[in-house]
Amino acid sequence: MNNLDLNEVANQLRCPSGQAGEELAEVMFKSNSNMIYKTVDRLQLHQEDIVLEIGFGSAKHLPYIFSTAKDLQYYGVEISSLMLEMATKVKESLSQEKIELQLSEELNTLSYPDKFFNHCFSVNTVYFWKDPVKYFTEIYRVLKPGGSIALSYIREDFAQQQPFAKEDVFHFYRTEWLIRIMTNIGYSHVERWQYIENTLDKLGNKVIRPFVVLKGKK
C-alpha cells in the first residue's frame, strides 16, 4: 500500500485486486469494523431474517452478523473477485450458517426477486454509486414490505479532505440529498445517526473520523 500513488489507492478502494488489494482489505476491515457493527445494530435483526449486503469486502464481519440473531440467511454482492475469494474463506469457517456470496459487475441491478429481503445494508460504498437513485430503487424492489435499509458512510466534509478521494472515482453526496432521494422513492421513517470514532484511515494513519448511518423502511 505504501508504494501506491493516490490514484491507485482510490481505485483499489473501489475494487481491490492483487497483493495491494489483500493488504488494503486488512486495513479496510480495521478501519471500517466499528461502522459495520453500528450499521448492523441499527437493522435490529430477528430470527430467520434474510439479509442482503452490498459490498461485503473481506467479510470478516460475518461472525458478528450471525451472533445477533438465530437462523439468519445472508446474501452478499461484490464487484471485486479478490474480495469474493477472501470472503469465501470466511464462509467456509461458518459452514453451519446460510451464506450466499455473488460477484456482480453492476450492483445497481440485483439478481433477486421482488420482496425477497427483510434487510439490506452497505458500508462505505455510496461514494462509488454514480446514480444513487438506481441503487435505492433496486434495493426498494427487493425489500419486503416493512423491510429496512441501512447505509453508512464517512461524512461528506471529512471524506472530501482525504488525499485519495479522487473526483473521477469518488462521488460525494450530502445526507439531506440522500434522504430526499429515499423519501421520493417511497422509503419511510428515514432516520440518521451521527458518530465520531478514533480509527485508521485507508493509508493506515490514526484519525478522528465522523460517519453517518441512514436507515429507512419500505
UniProtKB/TrEMBL annotation:
Methyltransferase type domain residues: 52-150
Coiled coil region boundaries: none
Source organism superkingdom: Bacteria
This protein's pathway: Lipid metabolism; Phospholipid metabolism
Keywords: Methyltransferase, Transferase, Ubiquinone
GO molecular function: S-adenosylmethionine-dependent methyltransferase activity
GO biological process: methylation
Listed name of the protein: Ubiquinone/menaquinone biosynthesis methyltransferase
Organism: Myroides odoratus (Flavobacterium odoratum)
